[in-house]
User: Fold this.
Amino acid sequence: MKGSMTWEETIKFIRTQPEYKYLVKKAYFEENLALNVERFRKSEEFIETLQLLKKHHPNAKEILDIGSGNGISAIALALEGFNVVTVEPDESDTIGAGAIRKLKAHYNITNLVIHEVFAEEIGFADESFDIVYARQCMHHAYDLEKFVAEASRVVKKDGFFMTIRDHVIFNKKDKEWFLEKHPLHKFYGGENAFKPEEYKNAMEKAGLEVVKELKYYDSIINYFPSSKEDIINMFKVKQSKAILSLDKKIGFLSKFSFIQKMYFRRIGLFKENVYDESRIPGRMYSYIAVKK
Assistant:
């Protein structure tokens, strides 16, 4: 069911609720806007993103940041020395263009220009940017093909369209599950997701060649705030819990590795099951596409 709050009202509300404290911190929704920026800049997600930017377009200077929200990505990129143009249709001081203006003034940034428009209607000149960057934004498109076509139009030849952390669903039932599990959708009803082929088809139709599809477990960009160590240790943790369970059943025999392996097989404990992204509602993907 669609919620009755606006996105800004939702964020203000969850800041007051103890059960959302972790989410507010990890999603960079804290009232202290500069603190959000500083934490984002140090995050493994942003560090990995910068590495991808340098790898695929080491000479990039002009970046369009689409759907910047409260400005953490736009400000972080500007502080890294990029010339940033940001588009954010929400005007609010909490999670919109107003927040970005506050941060721009706080950091005394001169290499950042703010526009309050939708991504489908950005209206900039053809081939204006080296990189078009969209963090947690493309899945909110009201017209996915138009969204991507505009991104493709304004990026330079051999430039890149980089989408970060977009929700992916595989079918109708999977989408219903994702919306049901999303912690904030019930408040504002604004969540959405597309199938991987829908994202890729939109990019190809717009003249972009997908050079990298990062699935959920492929990169910390997607599974953050979990760490790389968390992900690596997932299987070991599952094994340890299974062995403890086995020990309760058969005692000292559980110490023998061949018995453990037999037990793992019986309960279906395989790496491919542990790292099964279908068990993650609305798992996130990232894409890197080049304009040929």
In short: The chain has a mean pLDDT of 94.
